[in-house]
From TrEMBL:
Protein name, entry field: GFA family protein
GO MF terms, alphabetically ordered: carbon-sulfur lyase activity; metal ion binding
Record carries keyword Protein transport: no
InterPro entries: CENP-V/GFA, Mss4-like_sf
Species for this entry: Nocardioides oleivorans
Domain CENP-V/GFA: from-to ranges: 2-126
Keyword Lyase: yes
Family matches, as Gene3D superfamilies: glutathione-dependent formaldehyde- activating enzyme (gfa) (3.90.1590.10)
PANTHER family noted in UniProt: CENP-V_GFA DOMAIN-CONTAINING PROTEIN-RELATED (PTHR33337:SF40), GFA DOMAIN-CONTAINING PROTEIN (PTHR33337)
Length: 129
């Protein structure tokens, strides 16, 4: 079982199920929310148990798009969209080590910060259309 938590320890969570490999999201929202880019694993929402759900503060960055942070220390923890209620993204840096995961994919690379040098070998995606 994987586990993780925020910087101050107010939020601890467990994942009783498979974790997706890590995707980097460079979109402007994730860039501002994390201060860099969101490196996210993901799991079935029903597999994730948060010890104290009231310790997570949810911010609706857009209709149906929610970012979950620790209400005490501000750590970036979770991301979810109403369109996929069964799916929860988990900020990979909050997982307890070792995760056994690998970074495979970069999203919204056109919005990546100009100082960021993207890793070789990642599958890159950009705005749809
Ligand atoms: Zn915290
Ligand atoms: Zn993003």
């Amino acid at each position: 079982m994987a586990s993780g938590g925020c910087l101050c320890g107010a939020v601890r969570y467990e994942v009783d199920g498979p974790l997706r490999d890590v995707w980097n999201c460079h979109c402007e929202r994730c860039r501002r929310w994390t201060g860099h880019h969101l490196a996210a694993s993901a799991a079935a929402a029903s597999d994730v148990t948060v010890g104290d759900p009231s310790a997570v503060r949810w911010y609706a960055a857009a209709p149906g798009v929610h970012y979950g942070s620790c209400a005490t220390c501000g750590s970036s923890l979770f991301w979810k969209v109403d369109a996929e209620p069964g799916h929860l993204s988990i900020a990979a840096g909050t997982l307890d080590q070792p995760t056994g995961l690998a970074t495979t994919t970069a999203w919204w690379v056109s919005e990546a910060a100009d100082y960021h040098r993207r890793a070789d070998g990642l599958v890159e995606h950009d705005l749809e259309g």
